Amino acid sequence: MRRRPPIVELRDATVVYPGGHVALERVSFGIDRGDFVFVVGPTGCGKSTLIRTLIGEVTPASGEVLIAGQDIDRLPKRRIPYLRRRIGTVFQDFKLLPNRTVYDNVAYTLKVTGAGRGEVRRKVPEILRLVGLQGKVHNYPDQLSGGEQQRVSIARAFVNHPPLLLADEPTGNLDPETSIGIMQLLYRINRTGTTVLVVTHDREMVDKMRRRVLALDEGRLVRDQAGATYHEESTSEFGVRVRAEMGVGEGHTNGEPAATTPPGA
Amino acid sequence: MGRIFFFIAEALRALRRSSAPSLAAIVTIVMTTLLLGVFIPVIKASSTTTENVQEQLSLRVFMFADATKKQTKAAQRKIDKIPHVESTKYVSKKEGLETLRKDIGQGPIGEGITQLQGQNPLPLSIVVHPDNANNLRSIQHDITPPGPNGKPKAISPGIESVSSGQGAADAIRTVTNAVKVVLSVIAVLLLIASLLLVANTIRLSIYARRRDVEVMRLVGATNWFIRWPFVIEGLLVGVTGAAIAVGMLWVGKVTIIDPLADNFLLIDKFSTVGFVPLVAVLLGASVLVSALGSGITLRRFLRV
User: Fold this and answer.
1) pLDDT tens for residues B157-167?
2) Rounded to two decimals, what is the model's pTM?
3) Domains of chain B
4) Chain B positions in Cβ-Cβ contact with residue A95 (cut-off 8 Å)
């Protein structure tokens, strides 16, 4: 079988914002198709810049960013929208359109990417069933709970079944119980073959799910570890104590089994 | 096809939501189109008036103050023989004064004429009508041909000067030109105002729909797909305004101009612009202005 290029690959990518702030500094990693990856790190470490780089909103000053083997810096500007159609994005603040119903919010994505009426009628109810909102189709976003709004946003990101889904703090505004539901949904999406990259502060979630973790600090990639926890176990006394307290750790994979985690870098 | 409906639906949705600025832009475009629709025929008609004035032009040959009636009549006979002269008319001192008084009318100068008390400083004169206004100059040249020393020398010794009335035509032309300039400046200012108001409408619309735009960009809508609803919104504003103005112009034409044209044949003499080309020009201009207004704003405020 011919080996396909990683869905996401950064080679020494450096992103500098106007004004000289270095948001990402020589970051290199690759993510294989079907992976589920967490990106963690303190505020301002470059996590959101990473997402913005992957969707072609900011271009690296040096180094390469490849999506499915395609260097997005070499992509003509007018091709960027077509790149974004193959990447779903989910944000902490949902970015739903307040004056459109759940159905219209999802249908909007299909319409603005040129889908026909029949395609919209077929795909929207299907995806809303998948995220568990079939009963709220005609509600407006402000009639929904935060968790439900995030489900709409995930439905919108996934309605075209993109090979890559980026989630920027998807549970940042949600309570732990709701967050679990959202994470389960993201995991279900991951199992359909879509690569999922989740930027998060939710330590508990990362620790429970035991997936590959990329840790950023001040724009540098400081850790890339498979089946890992939020903090590096060997050095973080805090992490050890918290895990001991919560009863998670080796042998306590409350989330998904760590064995399915693909090998990291 | 589905796309076009989507664009128009989005544009109408935006217009409904920001009706106040849209209305302001539409009203300005109505005003602009209406005034342009009046100005263009007026400017055209005033040009025709100048031509008419030139057609009525005649030469006036003034005699020296001490020239006798006999001398003047002799001069008149000579002028009659000049080619292109259609007719001549002998004007006595009394007739000259009366014409002058009629032309000047009331006012301080009119009072002054009354105060002359029987004295009449006007010389005898001859009015010369050409067969065509274009021959005025050649007739004038023939009345005062250049003498041996190059200076104009009159064909009759009693003639002091020839007034071609060219001055009057020039004055009329100056006035109509000034009117044209003023009207053009007003028209241009109104066009700029329309442009800015359309631009402002689109700018507010972009602001009101910045979330929609953000989402469209995120999910991969192409740049033109994002822009089209805004362009159509601007065009709708422009065409609506122009359509209202054209409707008003049409009503004005039917109720005011047409009955006048039936009653007074003289209106036919004004070769103004036809209604259909005028409407075409107005609609074209409004579409151009609104497209330009939207385009400029999209370029500045819609980074896609």
Assistant:
1) 788 888 766 66
2) 0.68
3) 2-53+171-301 (no CATH), 58-164 (3.30.70.3040)
4) 211, 214-215, 218
ipTM reported for the complex surpasses 0.85: no
Give the SS3 label for residue B230: helix
Helix (H) or strand (E) holding A10: strand A8-16
Give backbone dihedrals phi and psi of A215, rounded to 5 degrees, phi first: -105, 130
Q: Do A156 and B216 touch (CB under 8 A)?
A: no
Residue with tokens 């009629």: B102
Task: Report the C-alpha gap between B259 and B257 in whole angstroms.
Answer: 6
Q: Residue A59: helix, strand or coil by DSSP? A: coil
The mean pLDDT value for B22-34 works out to 88
Among B124, B119, B139, B134, which residue's Cα sits nearest to residue B71?
A: B124
Q: How far is CA A150 from CA A47, A122, A200, B236, in A?
A: 20, 22, 15, 36
Q: Do B3 and A95 touch (CB under 8 A)?
A: no
- Mean pLDDT computed over every residue of chain A: 86
B61-77 burial code (b ≥16 CB/10 A, e <16): bbbbeebeeebbeebbe
CATH 3.40.50.10490 applies to domain A1-77+165-170+199-257: no
Q: Quick one: CA dihedral B14, B16, B18, B23, positive or negative?
A: positive
Token representation of residue B2 = 């589905």
Amino acid identity, residue A88? G
- pLDDT of amino acid A192: 93
Asked if A66 and A83 count as a contact pair (C-beta separation under 8 A), the reply is no
Question: If you measure CA to CA, which chain A residue comes closest to B210?
Answer: A97
On the question of pLDDT at A229 being above 70, the answer is: yes
Domain boundaries, chain A: 1-77+165-170+199-257
Å between A159 CA and nearest CA of chain B: 10
CA–CA–CA angle B27, B33, B37 (5° rounding):
145
SS3 B299: helix
